[in-house]
Design goal:
Elements: H1 5-15, H2 21-25, H3 35-38, H4 41-44, E1 51-52, E2 55-58, E3 61-63, E4 69-72, E5 82-94, E6 99-105, E7 110-114, E8 117-121, H5 125-137, E9 145-150, H6 155-160, E10 168-173, H7 176-185, H8 187-190, E11 198-202, H9 205-211, E12 217-223, H10 237-246, E13 247-256, H11 264-277, E14 282-288, E15 296-303, H12 336-341, H13 347-353, E16 356-358, E17 363-365
Parallel strand pairs: 9-10, 9-12, 10-11, 12-13
Antiparallel strand pairs: 1-2, 2-5, 3-4, 5-6, 6-7, 7-8, 13-15, 14-15, 16-17
The protein binds spermidine (SPD).
Length: 369
């Protein structure tokens, strides 16, 4: 799979509607790559978004003139939807990049939705933010320089702030409006911006990384939305190459990597690219997040050539960190046991994506009996 770049670009092209209709209809479309079908022009005009009869439903539901459900307009998880009961709509707006919705839910606290997709809820955000930050930072000794790509809500910054070894936290978020809205409605997350080690850059992360000094960062954390639209390039080869260049030898990347139940093809693509791009370790981990599609989310962790990184056994355990009281609340999800457990994978996933185990100097496939 490592050299199968044709397959990799095919998946990403289909997801993002770049493949020609002829090519798409001539073969079976993988379940994680349904953009081509969902964006068929005759269906596009009939979408209704967001809140209907007091319920928010993801993805957006599309009805015919008589009110019958036609389809769900999201290429990432066709054939299913998830609803939350809305108590009150708190904010609705449109930035240069996306639609932003914030509502108070009955059971999950305030909810942030971008382009119709749930990004976080107050109740379960801890699982995602804590894992995406501490999986990489607890895997290397004394991280000092960290870059966050995306992450405009501030939750990942809040988690990085727990690490007293960190001296600099750059964040590159493209959408200033997301930052401003979160400061108003998600103060428990946006508190992350108050850390004096944080330097905010509003702009395109690919450009930012292209100008970053080679070997500048100990860790890069990609906290993006799904790879449809603005975040598409964050799962493509050029982005991973620029990321690897900006990491020091033995530096680590942690990238949001979707659901093992829904996106095995995408995960395969990402692993395939990263095996070629990062010369250290490449691993997949996952956590339970009830309000994300299928209730789980994955993380792809990679290290560059250099001092070996054993992601499975945290060398910088969170329990031993010196407390930085000002920005800290208790951890709700992450601990060292969860860290190691997150790399235990179901058999179907090991088989489908040929997941990897480290050897001291290289990566190799593991066999599954
Ligand atoms: N399917 C939704 C995935 C969202 C990942 N990003 C969430 C941002 C939280 N900081």
């Amino acid at each position: 799979m490592g050299g199968d770049t044709g397959k990799e670009s095919e998946c990403l092209k289909i997801m993002n509607g770049k493949a020609s209709d002829e090519n798409v209809s001539a073969r079976a479309i993988p379940s994680c790559c349904m953009k081509a079908r969902a964006s068929a022009p005759e269906l596009e005009a009939k979408c209704h978004s967001t809140v209907v009869s007091g319920w928010f439903t993801e993805p957006r539901s599309c009805f015919d003139g008589d009110g019958y459900l036609l389809y769900y307009n999201n290429p990432m998880w066709p054939g299913e939807s998830h609803s939350l009961k809305v108590e009150k709509i708190l904010y609705k707006g449109k930035s240069e990049y996306q639609e932003i919705l914030v509502f108070e839910s009955l059971t999950y606290g305030n909810v942030l939705v971008l382009d119709g997709i749930v990004q976080l809820t107050e109740k379960d955000e801890c699982a995602y933010q804590e894992m995406i930050a501490h999986l990489p930072l607890c895997s290397i000794p004394s991280p000092k320089t960290v870059l966050v790509v995306g992450g405009g809500d501030g939750g990942v910054l809040r988690e990085i702030s727990r690490h007293s070894s960190v001296e600099l936290i750059d964040i590159c978020e493209i959408d200033k409006m997301v930052i401003d809205v979160c400061k108003k409605f998600f103060p428990d997350l946006s508190v992350g911006f108050e850390d004096p080690r944080v330097r905010l850059h509003v702009g395109d992360a690919t450009e930012f990384l292209q100008h970053a000094r080679e070997g500048m960062y100990d860790a890069i954390i990609v906290d993006s939305s799904d790879p449809v639209g603005p975040a598409q390039e964050l799962v493509e080869r050029p982005f991973f190459e620029t990321t690897a260049r900006a990491l020091r030898p033995g530096g680590v990347l942690c990238n949001m990597a979707e659901s093992m139940w829904l996106h095995t093809h995408l995960i395969q693509d990402m692993i395939s690219i990263c095996r070629e791009t990062f010369k250290g370790s490449v691993h997949y981990a996952w956590a339970s997040v009830p309000t994300y599609p299928s209730g789980v989310i994955g993380f792809l962790v990679c290290s560059t050539d250099g001092p070996p990184v054993d992601f499975l056994n945290p060398v910088n355990p969170i329990e031993k960190l010196e407390r930085v009281p000002k920005y800290q609340r208790e951890l709700r999800f992450y601990n060292s046991e969860i860290h190691s457990a997150a790399f235990a994978l179901p058999s179907f996933l090991k088989r489908e994506v040929s997941l990897l185990r480290d050897s001291p100097t290289s990566v190799q496939r593991i066999s599954v009996s």
